[in-house]
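BUG-391 | component: ligand-complex export | severity: low

The export step for iron/sulfur cluster jobs runs without errors, but we want the raw record kept on the ticket for reference. Input record follows.
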Amino acid sequence: MIREIEAKSLLRRHKKVESWFLSHYGLNLYRGCVHGCAYCDGRAEKYQVTGEFDRDIDVKVNALGLLERELDPERRRKPMPRSFMVLGGGVCDAYQGVEETYRLARGTLELLDRSGWPVHVLTKSVLVERDLDLLKRINRRNRAVVSFSFSSADEEISRIFEPGVPPPSRRLEAIRKFREAGLACGMFLMPVIPFITDTCEKITETLRKGKEAGVDFVIFGTMTLKAGRQADHFLGVLGKHYPEFISRYEDIYPEASPWGESTAAYTTAVHRIFDRAAAEVGIPVRMPRRLFDDILSREDLVIVLLEHLDYLLKLKGRSSPYGYAAYSLSQLKKPVSQLSREDLLKVRGVGPATAKVIAEILETGTCREYEELMERFGNPASFPPGSTGNV
Ligand code: SF4
C-alpha cells in the first residue's frame, strides 16, 4: 500500500562529517522499501517504520517544499557546512518503484543542482540511469558520485536475498554507463552475508567485477542482525535456503547486542579477508581524496583523513589513535585550524604524533602516512606536499 504523508522536516544533519559519504547531510524521501532485501536493517523497530516494510511505502509528498526551505540560506542562522548531500541509505532506496510516479529523487537532484550542492547517490536500482543527464550536470558544476550497493556479484544469491532489485550484473552495467559519462562510482559491498558472501572467493570475485566495471572505490561492511523484526525476517529466509548455517549465526550474533553487531572475532576475520582481496584487486577502500578535498573545509578534511587513517590501520590489524582524536576534534567549538599547538595537545586523544599529522593535513591537505596506506589499494600517492590532488 502506498501512503502519502506530510513530513515535518527532511534533512538529517550528522553530528560530525560522515566519512563514508563525505557528508554532513542525508535525507529519506520514502519510508519502507519494496526491494525487500532479507538483511535490510530498516526493518528494525528502532527506525519506527510502520506496516510491512517491503509492501507499505510512505511517500513524503511535501519533501521538495521542505527541502527548498531547509536549503534556503536566508532561513539559516549559520551557513551550512559544505559536503556531499546523500541521497540513499537509511530506511528506503530513493530509486525504488514509486519514484517512477512521484519523481521525488529527481526533484531533489534539481533542487540540489540549483543550490550548488555536490551529491552522492547510493542505490541498488538502475532507475537512477533516468537521471544521468542531471547527474552529469551536477558533476560538471559541483560533483556527483553514484554508488551501488551489493552483497556479492552472485546472481543466484542475490535472487534469494535481494528479491526486488536488478541482478548484480545489471548494477555493474549501470556503473559502466555512469563511468563512461565521466562520473565517479563507488561500490558499497555491504553487507556481506555471513558464510554465504563473506568468503575470500566471493569477496575477491565481487571486487574484480567492480574493478572491471570501473568503480573508483569500495566501502565494505559486515551484516548487523538486530533482535526483532529484522532478525526474524532474515532468519526465516536463511532457514528456507541455507538451514545448515542457522546454528553458526547463533554463534556470531550474541543476543545481548543492542546494535546487532557480529562478534569481534568474526568481524575482524572478515575484514582481514577484505583487506587482502582489495589490495590484490587494487581498489581504494575509501573514497579517494581527489574526489572530496576541494569540497570539504580544512577542519572537516582533518576529521575525515584521521578517520580514514584509523580505518586503514585497523584493517591491517594495527592499533590507531586517530579515530578517537577525530571524534574529540569534531566536538570542539573552536575550529582546529585556530588552535595553538599547546591547545591541540590538550584535546583528548591527541598526542604529539597525532598533532604532527593534523598540522601536516592543515598545511598540505593530506599527510604522508595516509597517502602511503592508500597506495596499497592501487590509489597512486599524490604527494609531494603542497599538491591538493584536486580533480
Ligand atoms: S535496497 Fe536498501 S533500503 Fe531497500 S530493502 Fe534493500 S537494503 Fe533495505
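Assignee comment: Attached the raw record above. Strands lie at 2-5, 12-18, 23-27, 30-31, 57-60, 84-87, 119-123, 144-150, 184-192, 217-222.
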